[in-house]
Amino acid sequence: MLLGANVRILVADESAIMRDVMRTVLRSLNHPHVVEAASGMAALRSFRGDDPPRLAFIDSALAGPGALAVLRRIRLEYPNTFVVMVSGGHAAADLKAAIENGADAFLVKPYRLSKVEHALDKYYEISPRLAPTG
What we know:
This protein is of the alpha/beta class. The chain has helices at residues 16-28, 40-45, 67-77, 91-100, 113-130; strands at 9-12, 34-37, 55-59, 82-87, 105-108. It has a single domain (2-113), classed as Rossmann fold (3-Layer(aba) Sandwich). Strands 2-1-3-4-5 form a five-stranded parallel sheet, sandwiched between helices. The chain is globular and about 30 Å long.
């Protein structure tokens, strides 16, 4: 998947192990530009500057602020970012909340190469719509 080599991706999860697993999976799919965040505040800080993430994987259990607050803020301030909400627990409730708050895709842990690849494929299907304007 050479298409994504330059896409900056945020992985927001309180667990360093889960961030490491996702970073490894993304790099194996030729996505080397991974930014990590262990809290909601760190996730939002990753959007500062000239090159905000174009794709974000946000764990539903993220705290400080919570995942849904981070999702709503991204939708408001960075509408061109493709957001994948990730759940490791109450998938049905998390899915409903993610959809209601504007998530583009949903992923259930544990991370598997095929699941992550499917989310990336979905991003690339709509990425022209997400391209920054002038």
